[in-house]
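Notebook entry, structure prediction.
Reason for the run: the old model in the group folder had no record of what sequence produced it. Starting over properly, with the input documented here first.
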Amino acid sequence: MGNATSAAAGSSDLLMIEQKGAVLTVGLNRPAKRNALNDGIILAIQDCFSNLPDDVGAVVIHGVGDHFSSGLDLSELTEQDATEGLRHSQMWHRVFDRIQYSRVPVIAALRGAVIGGGLELACAAHIRVAEPSAYFALPEGQRGIFVGGGGSVRLPRLIGVARMVDMMLTGRVYSATEGAAYGFSQYLTEAGNALPKALELAERVAANAPLTNFAVLQALPMIAEANPQAGLLMESLMATVAQSDKEAKRRIRAFLDHKTAKVKPT
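New structure, fully documented this time:
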C-alpha cells in the first residue's frame, strides 16, 4: 500500500485501513465509544489522506461496529482558551478539507449514529450511503457548544440553513429515510448493506478517467458557486482539458468502436 501502509500501521488502534484493488477502506475503529472523534483519530485521518497510494482510485469511510460516529469525544475535552479553541477547530477544518478536496472520490457508509462531528465528517465525503439504522443529529445546542468541523459551511449546502438551525436549536433527530429525502445522503440501502453499496459505488467511480473525477471533485463545486459567466468559462476550460487527456481519447475511441461494432450488419 505504499506510504499508506505506514500510516495504517501507526494508527492501527484508531483506524482500520485496507486496500482491495483500487479502493481503500478507512474504518473508524473506536466501536466501544461509538467511534467518537478525538484528536488522535482526526490526525490519523489526516495521515491517511496525506499518503494515499498512487493506485487508489476511491476511498470508503465507515465506522467499525454499529455506528458511523457519535461525534466529538466530550470525555477527552480539556479546558482551552480562545486561541487554543480556534486552532483546534482549524485543525479539524484542515483534516476534513483533505477529504473534500481529495484527488479521489470519497464515499461514506453510514449506520447508527451520524451526529455532531460525525455528521460533519460525513458531509466532507462526496457521496453518502445510509442504511435504515442511521440517524442524523446536531446536539451542540443542548451541550452548550457549536459545530467546529466545517458543519456550518457544508451541511446547509446539503439540507438548507433553516433545517440545520432547527436541528441545533431543538435537538431534532432525522431518521435514515428522512435523511435520504432531505439531502443528508444520496442512497438508502437495506439493513447491513451500506458498506457493500459504498464499495460497489467506489469500484465504479474508481474506474472513471482520473482527470474527469478530478474535475468533478475540484471544479464542479467552484462552478456551482461562481458567477454564471465565470462558471461557464471554467466549464469550457475543464471540458477542453478533459477531452485533450490521452485517457479520455482512448475511452472515446473504445466507445465509438464498440458502438460501430454493434450496428454492423451480420
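Summary: The chain is about 55% helix and 15% strand.
The old model has been moved to the deprecated folder.
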